[in-house]
C-alpha cells in the first residue's frame, strides 16, 4: 500500500506504482471542504492510468459529489465515517475486477500474437499479418515471397486456416525436395491401369487438395514440362493422372512460396510467364528477420518456453549480453536459424539463463550500427520500447515503468515509431 498526502505526491506515486486500486478522499488540502480539487485529481489519475479503479471517499452529506465522481469515471464511492470492514470489501471487489480486466487484456493480446503460430510485433510483420487476414477470405491465389526460413510455410497455412476453405483439404508439396521424375506423379497422381508394373494407383496432391488449398513450396523449382501441365489444371479445372486419359474436375486455391529470384527466372524464360501471373494474383513479400524490429527477442522468448516444455528444462531467460547479441546478429537463416539456435541452447546450456556462448552466434555476422546520431537514437528508442513491452508482457503501464516514462509519453513514442502493443 502506498500513501500520498496531496495532489503532487499522489501523481508522483501513481507514475511510480501504477496501482490497480486507488482510494481518493475528495477533500484535498488546502481546501478540504471543497471537492473540486479532488475531482480534478481523479480525472488526472484516470488520464495517466485509465485501468486503475478509483474509489472516492466523500463526506456523509456529499452524495451528489460522489455521483458526479462516478459519472466522471470513478469505479465506486464510499461515504464517511469509514467502517474498515465495509471499505475492505469494496477494495477487494475493485482488485478482483482490475485483475479480471487485466487477464482479459493479456488473453486478447496473446490471441493476437498467436496468429496461427506466427509470433510478431514488428510493424513490418504486423502489416504482413494484416494483408494475410485481408486476402485469406478471397479465393485468390497467393504468392509468398521471401528468403529461406522467413516463415512462408507458416504464413501459407495461416491463409488456409483463415479462409472459407478451412474445413476443406490442405495439401502441401515442396517442389525442391522431390526429384524431378517423381514430382509429376506426386502432383498429378498415378493411374496403374495405364501401366503393367504391379503398382497401385495413387492420388496426386492436386486431387488431394480438391475444393481446398494446394500449397506449393519453392514453386520456382517446378520443371518447365510440369509448369505447362499445371497451367492447364488452373485454366481448365481438370487433372489427368499419369498413365490416364481420364480428366477429373478439380477446384483449387493455390498458395505458393518463392524466393526473390522467381521474377528473374521469368525474364530468363526459365519459368512460364502465364503461370507466374496466375499464381501471383496476390503477392506478399515477407521481410528478413533482420528487418523486423523487436521480433527476434519476442520469438526467442516464445521458443524458449516451447523448448523448455519439450525438453523438460527450466531455463529462465536470456542474459543481457545474449539479448544484445541476438539483436545485433544479422540472422542469415532467419526464423529457422533462430529456432535452431534456441533449441540447441535450451538442450545444451548449463546456466539458468542463456548466454551468447550458448547461442553460438558468429561475431563476424554482427551488424554495423549507423553513425548518424538521430538514427542511432531512434533505433535505440524503438528497440528499448519494444523490449520493455515484451518484458512487461504487453502491459503498457508496466513497460512505461521499466522505461522510466509516464504512460502518455510512452504512448506518444509508440505512435511516433509506429509500435503496436
Ligand atoms: N513469425 C514466426 N513466429 C514463430 N515461428 C516462426 C515464425 N516464422 C517462422 N517460424 C518457424 O520457423 C521455421 C521456418 O519457417 P517456414 O518453414 O515457414 O519458413 P520458410 O520461409 O517456408 O522456409 P523455406 O523457404 O526454407 O522453406 C518453422 O519452424 C516455423 O514454424
UniProtKB/TrEMBL annotation:
CDD domains in alphabetical order: AAA (cd00009)
An annotated Gene Ontology molecular function: ATP binding
Entries under Pfam families matching the protein: AAA_lid_14 (PF25601), HTH_8 (PF02954), Response_reg (PF00072), Sigma54_activat (PF00158)
In-chain residues carrying the UniProt-annotated modification 4-aspartylphosphate: 25
Record-linked InterPro entries: AAA+_ATPase, AAA_lid_NorR, CheY-like_superfamily, Homeodomain-like_sf, HTH_Fis, P-loop_NTPase, PEP-CTERM_resp_reg, Sig_transdc_resp-reg_receiver
Keywords assigned: ATP-binding, DNA-binding, Nucleotide-binding, Phosphoprotein, Transcription, Transcription regulation
Superkingdom of origin: Bacteria
Ranges of residues in domain Response regulatory: 1-95
GO BP term, pick one: phosphorelay signal transduction system
Protein's UniProt keywords contain 4Fe-4S: no
Location of the Sigma-54 factor interaction domain: 118-347
PROSITE patterns the record matches: RESPONSE_REGULATORY, SIGMA54_INTERACT_1, SIGMA54_INTERACT_2, SIGMA54_INTERACT_3, SIGMA54_INTERACT_4
UniProt name for this protein: Fis family two component, sigma54 specific, transcriptional regulator
The species this protein was found in: Kangiella geojedonensis
Amino acid at each position: 500500500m502506498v500513501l500520498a498526502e496531496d495532489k503532487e505526491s499522489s501523481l508522483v506515486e501513481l507514475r511510480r506504482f501504477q496501482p490497480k486500486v486507488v482510494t481518493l478522499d475528495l477533500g484535498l488540502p488546502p481546501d478540504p471542504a471543497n471537492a473540486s480539487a479532488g475531482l480534478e485529481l481523479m480525472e488526472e489519475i484516470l488520464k495517466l492510468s485509465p485501468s486503475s479503479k478509483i474509489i472516492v471517499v466523500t463526506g456523509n452529506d456529499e452524495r451528489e459529489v460522489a455521483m458526479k465522481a462516478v459519472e466522471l469515471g470513478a469505479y465506486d464511492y464510499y461515504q464517511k465515517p469509514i467502517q474498515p470492514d465495509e471499505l475492505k470489501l469494496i477494495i477487494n471487489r475493485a482488485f478482483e475486477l482490475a485483475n479480471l480486466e487485466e487477464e482479459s487484456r493479456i488473453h486478447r493480446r496473446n490471441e493476437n500474437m498467436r496468429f496461427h503460430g506466427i509470433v510478431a510485433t514488428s510493424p513490418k510483420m504486423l502489416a504482413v499479418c494484416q494483408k494475410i487476414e485481408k486476402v485469406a477470405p478471397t479465393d485468390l491465389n497467393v504468392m509468398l515471397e521471401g528468403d529461406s526460413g522467413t516463415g512462408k510455410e507458416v504464413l501459407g497455412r495461416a491463409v488456409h486456416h483463415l479462409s472459407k476453405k478451412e474445413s476443406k483439404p490442405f495439401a502441401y508439396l515442396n517442389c525442391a525436395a522431390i526429384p524431378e521424375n517423381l514430382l509429376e506423379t506426386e502432383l498429378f497422381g498415378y493411374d496403374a491401369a495405364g501401366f503393367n508394373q504391379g503398382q497401385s494407383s495413387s492420388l496426386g496432391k492436386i486431387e488431394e487438395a480438391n475444393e481446398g488449398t494446394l500449397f506449393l513450396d519453392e514453386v520456382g523449382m517446378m520443371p518447365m514440362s510440369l509448369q505447362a501441365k499445371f497451367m492447364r489444371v488452373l485454366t481448365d479445372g481438370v487433372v489427368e493422372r499419369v498413365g490416364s486419359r481420364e480428366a477429373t474436375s478439380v477446384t483449387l486455391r493455390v498458395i505458393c512460396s518463392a524466393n526473390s529470384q522467381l521474377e528473374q527466372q521469368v525474364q530468363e524464360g526459365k519459368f512460364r510467364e502465364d503461370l507466374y501471373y496466375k499464381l501471383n494474383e496476390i503477392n506478399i513479400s515477407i521481410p528478413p528477420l533482420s528487418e523486423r524490429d523487436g521480433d527476434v527477442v519476442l520469438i526467442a522468448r516464445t521458443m524458449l518456453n516451447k523448448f523448455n516444455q519439450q525438453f523438460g528444462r527450466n531455463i529462465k531467460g536470456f542474459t543481457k549480453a545474449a539479448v544484445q547479441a541476438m539483436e545485433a546478429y544479422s540472422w542469415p537463416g532467419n526464423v529457422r536459424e533462430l529456432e535452431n539456435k534456441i533449441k540447441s541452447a535450451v538442450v545444451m546450456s548449463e546456466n539458468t539463463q542463456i548466454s551468447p556462448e550458448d547461442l553460438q552466434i558468429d561475431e563476424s555476422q554482427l551488424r554495423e550500427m549507423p553513425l548518424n546520431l538521430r538514427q542511432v537514437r531512434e533505433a535505440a528508442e524503438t528497440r528499448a520500447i519494444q523490449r520493455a513491452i515484451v518484458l512487461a508482457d504487453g502491459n503498457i503501464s508496466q513497460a512505461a515503468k521499466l522505461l522510466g516514462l509516464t504512460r502518455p509519453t510512452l504512448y506518444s513514442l509508440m505512435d511516433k515509431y509506429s509500435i503496436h502493443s
